[in-house]
Amino acid sequence: MSDDETAGVLALARRIALAAGAIQRERFETGVSVATKSSAIDLVTEVDHACEKAIVESIQGERPDDAILAEEGHGEDTDGREWRWVIDPLDGTTNYAHGYPRFCVSIGVERNRVREVGVVYDPLLDELYHAVRGGGAWLGERSLSVSTCSELGSALVATGFAYDVHRNSRESAACFASMLEAARGIRRDGSAALDLCYVAAGRFDAYWELKLHPWDVCAGNLIVEEAGGRVTAADGGPAPANGSSVLASNGRIHDQVLERLQSAGGDAGASS
């Protein structure tokens, strides 16, 4: 742990992730109200808002000078603040709305715009992932390490599709088809934060997705890096903080996945 303040930020992030996860667990499959945002498949529920409200109020109560970027718009993303919280209160909302048990809370914290703390909580499996820059990645009390798979043909990889996939499916379909030909298996589970944590835990060997947002990747990218993995944009450039694309892997198969994505045209806008 780098200092006492970082330790306090981590403790707060863990505590509020567990509290938000408890809301999700309590309300799961109870008939929550659902609305749409940018498209018919971009959903938001009353649980998203309840979780975000609880998270933001806790941060503001204990750290009122911190900036907050939250998916549903609570809090203030004030410029010039040392600490910035990047929050997805319910990652996997479509899953949640359909009763599919793959969702989580994702809380990333930047210090001077550098990822410093990452916490992801899966409330149904009761799995709490966390990382601090320079301090490794953890699942509970277990230290995490990425897999040792060195061949794409032996790899289990994951992906996701953007909310505009119905209007712009060609690029996603080309990447998926290319990887389907090369990898042992592909999973598409609908939670970017959990997919990244699964790379960190060695459950997945790689994960890629286009057109994400900062709250999708802030925590998970740090957890992968601290587990010994590699995170870039889908074109191989530096991973963009805005989440416009991500390729996370164990490092050993990164270039093989990258070659497949590039050959399929999956790097459009990746480093924007």
Instruction: Name the CATH architecture of the largest domain.
Output: 2-Layer Sandwich
- Total count of strands: 14
Could you state the CATH homologous superfamily of the largest domain? Answer: Fructose-1,6-Bisphosphatase, subunit A, domain 1
> Roughly what is the average pLDDT, rounded to an integer?
92
Short description:
With about 270 residues, the protein is of the alpha+beta class.
Describe the secondary-structure layout.
Layout: H1 4-27, E1 34-36, E2 43-45, H2 46-62, E3 67-70, E4 83-91, H3 93-98, E5 104-111, E6 114-122, E7 127-132, E8 137-139, E9 142-143, E10 156-159, H4 169-182, E11 185-187, H5 192-200, E12 206-210, H6 214-226, E13 230-232, E14 245-249, H7 254-263
Helix pairs in contact: 1-2, 4-7, 5-6
Description:
It is a single chain. The chain is α+β, with helices and mostly antiparallel strands. It folds into 2 domains: 4-143, 2-Layer Sandwich (Fructose-1,6-Bisphosphatase, Chain A, domain 1), CATH 3.30.540; 152-263, 3-Layer(aba) Sandwich (D-Maltodextrin-Binding Protein, domain 2), CATH 3.40.190.80. It has 7 helices and 14 strands. The strands form 3 sheets. A 7-stranded mixed sheet has the order 3-4-5-6-7-8-9, sandwiched between helices. A hairpin with a 2-residue loop joins β5 (104-111) and β6 (114-122). α1 (4-27) packs antiparallel against α2 (46-62), α4 packs across α7 (254-263) and α5 (192-200) packs parallel to α6. The two termini are 32 Å apart. Residues 268-272 have low confidence and may be disordered.
